[in-house]
Amino acid sequence: MCLGIPGRVTEVTDRDGLLMGVVDFDGIRKDVCLSYVPDVGVGDYVIVHVGFAITEVDRQEAERTLGVLRAMGDAVREELGEPLPAKDGSA
C-alpha cells in the first residue's frame, strides 16, 4: 500500500539545484524532495508520497489525516519505516 502522509516542513534547502527539505511527521523526520511544491516554506504542511511532497495542505487537514493514519499503524510503518508516535508522545 502506498500512502500520502502529511507532515510539517522544518527545513528547506537547495541541494545541487534540487529543492529539498526536512519534513516532520509528528516526531518522525525525513528528507523530502520539495520540487513539486516550490512555494512551500518552513512551517507549511505537505502531503508526502515516496519521498516527494506532492501538495500543500492546511494544518487542520494534516492533523485530521494523521489521526486516521495512527489507527492504521502497520500501513504507516511500511511507508515511513516506523510507526507514528502516539499523539501524547508515547510509542
Describe this structure in words.
The protein is α+β, with helices and mostly antiparallel strands and 91 residues long. The chain has one domain: Roll (SH3 type barrels). It is built from two helices and five strands, in the order βββββαα. A five-stranded antiparallel sheet has the order 3-2-1-4-5. The model has no long low-confidence stretch (mean pLDDT 86).
Low-confidence stretches: none
**Total helical elements:** 2
Strand order of the largest sheet: 3-2-1-4-5
- The average pLDDT value, as a whole number, equals 86
Share of residues in helices: 10-25%
Write down the CATH class. Answer: Mainly Beta
| Fold-level CATH name | SH3 type barrels
Major beta sheet, specifics? 5 strands, antiparallel
Question: Roughly how many Å apart are the termini?
Answer: 23 Å
Shape: globular
Q: How many distinct domains?
A: 1
Q: How many beta-strand elements?
A: 5
Secondary-structure class: alpha+beta
Order of helices and strands: EEEEEHH
Residue share in β-strands? 35-45%
Could you say what the CATH architecture is? Roll
Alpha-carbon Rg, integer: 12 Å
